[in-house]
Structures are given as structure tokens and as C-alpha cells.
Amino acid sequence: MGLTHILVFLAAILLARLLFRPGWYARAWGWLLLGGSALAVFWMQPAVPIRNFDFYFPTATLILVTLCWAITAPAETRRARENWAAGGVLAGIVLIVALTRYLGLEGLLTPTRPPQTIIVLAVLVAAAVISLLLARFTRPGPRLVAAAVALMVLLFVLLKTPALAQMAGGALRTLMGQEAALAKPTDLRWLGFSYLSFRLIHTLRDRMIGRLPAVTLREYLTYAIFFPAFTAGPIDRLERFIRDLRSPAPLQPDDLAVAGRRLLTGLFQKFVLADALALVSLNDTNAGQASAAGWLWLLLLAYSLQIYFDFAGYTNIAIGLGRLLGLRLPENFNHPYRKPNLTQFWNNWHMSLTLWFRAYVFNPLTRALRTRSRLTVWSIVLISQTALMLLVGLWHGVTPGFAIWGLWHGLGLFVHNRWSDWIKPRATELNASPVLAAVLPPLSTAFTFVYVSLGWVWFALPDAGLAARTLLRLFGMG
Amino acid sequence: MKTEPRTLFNALWKGVILFLLANLLFAALQPGGLSRVSVYNSIFPGRVRLPFGENIQRSYNLSLYDLDAMFASLALRPEKPAGEFRVLVVGDSSVWGTLLRNDETLPGQLDALGLTCAGRKVRVYNLGYPTMSLAKDLMLIERAAAYQPDLIIWPVTLQSFPIETQLESPIAAHNRAELAALAAKYGLALDTAGLPEVNFWQRTIIGQRRALADLARLQLLALPWAATGIDQDYPETYTPAARDLEANTSFAGLSGPDLPADALAWDVLRAGMAAAGETPVLLVNEPILISRGANSDVRYNFFYPRWAYDAYRAQLSGLAAAEGWAYLDLWDAVPETRFTNSAVHLDAQGVGLMVELIAPGLTCER
Predict the structure, then answer these.
(1) Which CATH topology does B31-360 take?
(2) What are B32-78's pLDDT values in tens digits?
């Protein structure tokens, strides 16, 4: 989401708020959010080297969400007449975008010319038939939902594993009559898929355990592709999202004040601080060029701040835009670098992602280990923390660097857990000393920040060998 | 606390008024001192050559037009340490050192010789800037005077001389007032009136946003520059300068065989020599690639047909002799194998050959 996207979104939202009469909200606001989000998914999609895939990826997003709804929706919700309208709106938007090929409007809604309309129609008909068959002849039983989760995970692994992504890219290139040998792992730039898949898995998993609220296709689609949060989160929960979605109201001064503050903060964090720091942050070029360890530390510090301001900036922008639209998106960052230990850092960094992993990985895994094995407490903590953080790392990409970054934090969390247990009985003793009580908190915060920053080396440098050498050089070795 | 619509409206209009006021104040006051505030030479070491770069991420450098900021980033202070014999080298990209590391450039290699002059240590500074224009060189020499040089070395080549190229250097084109003042001072026939004038609105914060952003970026890039010592993008491969040439014999719209004196900016050259004041200037005709490829019977290289270059050399040496200037003609001093991506860009060994010929001209003992 670039600055142009954000400013256009802002202008469009304010215009819609100005034009809407109070009586229209209940009837039309939800539809406006759906239509706007569907169009935004196409508009934000960057160019893809594989022909027409800057059109097919957004289309696949909409189809995937529709299929997941068809799988998860209870029978009575599937029958609601409103779903036909939602399907029609969706198909209409895809067709409108496809028809821009005849208007010479390349670049307006899609980076390149959309494919031939007949092919788009065929894709839409196929998607509609499959959705109808699913909705008509299936029940959201555990097997079907589990299969859908497995398919989603497989697709995720395919897109996030460089070797697999390159193979898939080669196959798609062949399909589109392009040279397969030119395929690269970065060809499959499916915008927003990382977040989309986690939202969909959340609904599928909650359907399995019977916690998912019944929502219409329009509500489900709007939740999954809500444009302020589509590219960089936060990952909301469906039951919380639809509470706001179902109670649209005219904009209140409070909303405007909060949204304005979040937007200004976010724009400053992303487009001033983060973009400026990007010029001086650690990267695979300057990591090998820095002449001394001191300079490397400064480059690493810049990276630590850049990644925070970049991400926190986008979150603020998403929350600000969401608030203008009448939806309160969850917080994602709460001063994580000010926290005195790694556990608190992860409770305050990319909070919606960690909550997701805690709900769907950590808690079930810990429960299973406790009930089905005779492992000691510390080994359960070790296994569950490292497994959790390894998965968080792999969510960013299936590469050795991200895996090591995940393990770095998993082991850090484990060590902190053991340290907390050890120090707890001695805390009163320590706090009795005014010097220690004054010195320990800032020292703990500094130590946590350094540990997190050293972890970023694995994150910033895709080559694990270079990352290892850089870590050694940071300490004057190598 | 509930926000009242009136509070919001008040905050909004006050914000707008303050922003407008800040813009008007900025335009009216034009805080030129801002450009001279620099993290270079204080927090971070100064740069060895003037900022110039297209690929900011790989070169840790950028091109900007603010001469004050550019000079403030250089490791060259107006105060000269006692015992320093200060040599400033002005010129185009061949002096700046395209594709060369700082210790490989002409100033870098001259500095590394460790010369002394009348007991003073010779320190050589790079004031070269890519783009070929004598007017741009004149602007740099005029500023160089503030740095107490003991000697200025000024390598030139014919491509810097045509009248129409004088204002094409971005440095010249974006510093209209400074160039116009120089034109008036030295009576130059430069059409500075054709350069874009900065109006009041372009002097506001909004109008100056690009210049202000460039200034901020230059300061930020001090960190990677200091950390790596790198200030340009060194591609793994480059397209070598053409050896096989087109049969075209025209130069600057002329087809020869005569090169009219008024086609070249001799007045700007004279102004440059005059701008140095009492400081001696060593004028150098830069080495050029002398091709032996196709059509090399009519052209020396991509830039120069033989007739134009020969006429230029004759006129330049004649003028130097008539004016009594210290002049060194190195046009054929470097074999064609030592040229890199342009007919005037040398590799380190090529520069070394040039250094051997210039160093004795410094009339200093080793």
C-alpha cells in the first residue's frame, strides 16, 4: 500500500461519509465496504512477471474467500438471498475490472491489461459452479474443513518456499506461453496472501470447533479482504469484526479525531521515519562492506528501528482508515522495544499474529503435550516455544534465515521462562536493594532490545551464511 | 473524553494556518544556513568527493543541486592547517573518478605520492563533478577560493567547451542566481535568462520539498558512507567506450574543417583562470581515447571528430601560451586500453600515467 493508495482511500472514504445520509447506513454501507475492498484488492496488486497474473491473483483471492465461506457457512446462512447479491456484486466487479482492457485503462485498476473477457467469464462460471455445489451438497463437517485447512497450508508453503515457488512459477509461465526457465522464486507476488490465509484458516478452524458465528457471504468477504488491513494486517477475528460491521453509523467527531491522529502518526512513521531509515539500515550489500563492528551495530540499530516504524506505521494507517470506515481494528504494536523481557516483547509485537499462533498452535500443542506425554514442564515449554516461534519465522518465508530467526526467539523465550521461574522467589530480595531496583529495569529493556536486534540479522540478510558472518563481525570476530 | 466537532474544526484550521505561516516564513527568510548544517566533519567523516550518484541504495550517494550542502559534506574545511600545501583539482567525471575508488582517482593518487612543497605537506582534494561544462567548473573554482588553495589543477576536455553545453550541467541549471552573478562579474556570454527562475512559491517549504528531502538524505547517507567508505555504485560489468565509430564528422552542429572561436566558451575558461585570483592554476588537457577501430581515420573517439579536436588543441595551446598559463597537454598520454566506459574515463593505471606527468609540474621535491 503506497502513499497514493492511502491518499486515494482517505479521499474516497471522506467523500462517501459526506455523501451518505444517516438512513442509508443500515442498507448500503456494508455493500460499499465490500465493493470498495474488492476493487482495492485489484488496484493494490503489484505487477507480476507471469502474464495476466496481476489480474488472476486478486481474482483467486475473491474465489478462495467465496469457497471458504461456502465450506464454513451453516446451512441456514447459505440459503439467505443476500448471498446471491454478494456473489453478483463480486462477479460484476471482476467483470468490470476485466472490461477495462477495452477502455485502454491499463494501470488504473490493474498494472497490465486484463486477460480476454471470455476466459474471465469461464473462470467466474467455474468458480460459481464449485461454490454452488459446495453450498448445496456439503455440510461444514470436520473432514471437509480439515481438508480446506490442509489445502490452505499447502498453498502457503508453495508460495513461501523459494524452490517450490520457482517451480510453480515455471509451470504457470509455461501455461501462459512464457519461458519457464526465466522463473524466479519472487514471481508469485500474490498480494496479501499471508494475511488472507491466516484469516481464512482462523474461520475454518473455528468452524471445526463450532465457535464461528454465522455470517453472510458479504460479511465474510468484507472481513477477509477489508482493504485497510489487507496487505499488512492486523489479523482481526471474525466475531469481533462483524460486531462493528453490523452496526454502521455516521462518522462521529471522536472517530475523526482518533483516525486523524492514527493516520498522521502512521504516515510519519512509514513514509518519513521508516523510509529514511531504510537508506541506512543493515542489508545484504552493506553487511559485507562495513569496515568495523561499530558501524555494523549502527546499521543494525537503524534496521531495528526501520522495521518497527514500517510495520507500526502501516498498522496505524490501517487502524486509522478502519476507524473512518466505522471498524475498530485490533492493535498490533504496543511499544515493544520498551519491554523488559522477550516474553513481553512478543506480547506487544505484531500482537494479532502472535495471538493467532497462540490460539491455533501454542495452546493446542501445549495441551496435547501435557495430556498425552510424560514430558517435564521445562521440556514442554522448550518444545512449544521453539515450535511456535519456528512457525512464526516460517510464516515470513520458508528459508533457513527465517527459520533460524524463529528458533532464536523460541530459545530466547524458553530461557526467559526458566529465568523467570528461577528469579521469582528471589525477587523480594532483589527489590530490597534500591540500586538494583533502579538499575535492573532499564538494563533488562536494553538487553531485550539487543537480543531482538541481533535476531533481526537473520531476518534482514536472506543468506544465512552472510548473517552468521555478520553476527560474528558484530562482536569483532571474523 | 468525547471530542466535540468544534474542537476538531479548531484544531484543523489552526493547523492549516500554522502550516501556511511556516511556508510563507520559509519563503521570505530563505534560511540558506540550513544547507551548511551538516553531520559530515562532525559526527561522521567528510566525503572525499562531491556528492553524486544515481543509485542511492548501492552508492550511498546522491545527486543534488545545493552547492552549500555539497561543499559542507566534503572533508575540506575553509581553515587550512599550518604546514599544508593545499591543491584542489577541479573538473569533470574523469577527475571525480567514475568507476574509480577514492584512492585511485587523480586527486587520490596525487595525494598518495606524499609530496612536500617548500617544507609543507601537499594535500590534494577532489573537487571534480560529473557533467561536462566549463560554467560548472567556474562555479566550483569560484567557491574553491574560500578554501585557501595553494594550487588549482584544472583538467578540461573539448566536450566541456561548446557554448550550448554550458548550462546543461544540473549544477549550473539549478543555480541560476549564482551563475548569473558570475556571468555579470566576468562578462560572460551565457544565456542565464533562459534558466528557470525560482519564484516565491517555489521558495516555500512545499516548493522546496525535493531540495529539503535531498538535504536530509545526504545527511542520512553519512552513516553508510562512513561505515563502508563507498560513494559510488561499482557495477560488476560495464559497456566499454566505443572503439568502432560512426563515420559522422560533425561536432556541436559544425562539420569543419574550421572550428570558429565563438563556438566554444573561451570566455568561461578565461573567467575560470581569473576566478582563481592569485592562486596558480595548472590547466590540463585531459587524455582522450584514441581509437584504432572502424572510422578512426575521421574520429578519435565517440565524442570527437579529428578535425574538431585538432583545432581545439591548437586553439587551447595558443591561448595558454598567449596568456602565459601553466598548461599541460596530455591528450595522447594514455593508451586506449586504459579507458573504461567513456572516452575520457581512465582506469587506475591510466590515472597513474597521468599522475606521473602532472606530479613534476607541482614543482615540489619528493
Answers:
(1) Rossmann fold (3.40.50)
(2) 788 888 999 999 999 999 999 988 989 999 999 999 999 999 999 99
